[in-house]
Amino acid sequence: MTREASEPGGIVVVGNGMAGARLVSEIRARDPHVPLTVFGAEAWQPYNRVLLSNVLAGATGPDQIGLVDPAWYGANRVDARLGVEVVRIDREARVVHGSDGSAVPYRTLVLATGSSSFVPPIPGTRDGLPAGAVAFRTLDDCSAIIDAADGARRAVVVGGGLLGIEAARGLVGRGLEVTVVHLAGHLMERQLDPGAGKVLARTLGRLGIRARVDVSVSALRVVLDAGAPRVTGVELAGCGGAEGADGAEFLGADLVVLACGVRPEVGLACAAGLEVDRGIVVDEELRSVSDPAVRAIGECSQYGDTVYGLVAPAWEQATVLADLLTGADARARFTGARQITRLKAASVDLVSMGETHHGDDDPDVEVIRFADASRGTYKKVTIREDRVIGAILLGETSTAGTLTQLYDRAAPLPADRLSLFFPGLGGAQPADSPVRMPDAATVCHCNNVTKGQIRACWEKGARTADEVAARTRATTGCGGCRDAVEGIVGWLGEQESVPAG
């Protein structure tokens, strides 16, 4: 730690997750001298939350998902206070107070407090979660689930959204019998239409994951074990089947994972008197509308009517704010971001973007759909005025690059609509192949890395996807672009080996 980092006139970042950690690194890349302090409530070094499901499945170790080398802070004169929570903001004095008793002044305060798990207020949760029940959000949660899974036979995952599906896939990979219980009528209802939700449920069923939709959990059933409560399953309201003593259906489980969604962590902002709707309300400069000395980014912030819950918009906000705070680009602005969701668990590959819920009865929208439930494949593209406004690719995602480019740029569609689903149809080369992809095409959407940047890395000596990742951060977000980056690197290598003339 450096004393200068805590002197008046510095930047203080509250939150050291994916948004806060990225902001700190982006600031230091632009200005090595500005006093910079970061508070992280978790004692861990910042890590990639997107990859927690890989840790849960046992495919990746916790040490493999870190975002910042621990030695980086000292080498870059960043005052990193890990495991220290900010408990109060004094806006008048421009001071933040830490849980360790520290008081740190700031010139600019950035709130990157992220989100917290939503735990439904039902019997069994109101006095804290019993043993064997864990809300899935952090690396500590992941470790607790792994510990609880050891020796367990049956698990219930409450919530069939993105995080719940990832948790279920990880648990079934550890040999547990898994049931997903979901309140909505189909899985991942925010990203998928009913048809895709049904195909996803069928795919999960083949993997050993049972999906129960359109049901609600009314309680956690617990027993006392050595005087402490331990979960034995969940009660479902209004369902037929095996019943408990009160008539509710009972699903027995040794482990219950709560993946019921998240809520922006805005308690600190509310207590400080900042304007909060669903998130901390900010303008195009990520400035709180209540206080020009306070900025907010990531899942705790709200721009317009939107709270962005994905990593790519958070990292885009971090880049914009770093430009503004260091003066690298005084014209930088955040004007919103397109949201692209990827689920890449073992045997489940999914990409969803934009407006996906339009049906065939909307006269202003053209809908193209292909489904093969037996193969776990569902593809849908929604089009308005010859532009892609939404897409779902489930089970077979080879045209994801093409669709993402069309969606991002609002570019005109090819005359042959079926080529959006089937690459190379009619002898045409897929638009997302390395050969036809323009240098301006975005390959890694989490980090906004283009094919041209990957080519530039190659020309400077990068010969593997890992070397490209080290220089550009491509593949370090959701990891969904790994195959594309490797394809481009491989193609560049082939071009280099072709004799001239």
TrEMBL record:
<comment type="similarity">
    <text>Belongs to the nitrite and sulfite reductase 4Fe-4S domain family.</text>
</comment>
<dbReference type="Pfam" id="PF18267">
    <property type="entry name" value="Rubredoxin_C"/>
</dbReference>
<protein>
    <submittedName>
        <fullName>FAD-dependent oxidoreductase</fullName>
    </submittedName>
</protein>
<keyword id="KW-0411">Iron-sulfur</keyword>
<dbReference type="InterPro" id="IPR036188">
    <property type="entry name" value="FAD/NAD-bd_sf"/>
</dbReference>
<feature type="domain" description="FAD/NAD(P)-binding">
    <location>
        <begin position="11"/>
        <end position="318"/>
    </location>
</feature>
<dbReference type="InterPro" id="IPR041854">
    <property type="entry name" value="BFD-like_2Fe2S-bd_dom_sf"/>
</dbReference>
<keyword id="KW-0349">Heme</keyword>
<keyword id="KW-0560">Oxidoreductase</keyword>
<keyword id="KW-0408">Iron</keyword>
<feature type="domain" description="BFD-like [2Fe-2S]-binding">
    <location>
        <begin position="443"/>
        <end position="489"/>
    </location>
</feature>
<keyword id="KW-0479">Metal-binding</keyword>
<dbReference type="InterPro" id="IPR016156">
    <property type="entry name" value="FAD/NAD-linked_Rdtase_dimer_sf"/>
</dbReference>
<keyword id="KW-0285">Flavoprotein</keyword>
<dbReference type="InterPro" id="IPR023753">
    <property type="entry name" value="FAD/NAD-binding_dom"/>
</dbReference>
<keyword id="KW-0274">FAD</keyword>
<dbReference type="Pfam" id="PF04324">
    <property type="entry name" value="Fer2_BFD"/>
</dbReference>
<dbReference type="InterPro" id="IPR041575">
    <property type="entry name" value="Rubredoxin_C"/>
</dbReference>
<dbReference type="InterPro" id="IPR052034">
    <property type="entry name" value="NasD-like"/>
</dbReference>
<comment type="pathway">
    <text>Nitrogen metabolism; nitrate reduction (assimilation).</text>
</comment>
<dbReference type="Pfam" id="PF07992">
    <property type="entry name" value="Pyr_redox_2"/>
</dbReference>
<feature type="domain" description="NADH-rubredoxin oxidoreductase C-terminal">
    <location>
        <begin position="341"/>
        <end position="405"/>
    </location>
</feature>
<dbReference type="InterPro" id="IPR007419">
    <property type="entry name" value="BFD-like_2Fe2S-bd_dom"/>
</dbReference>
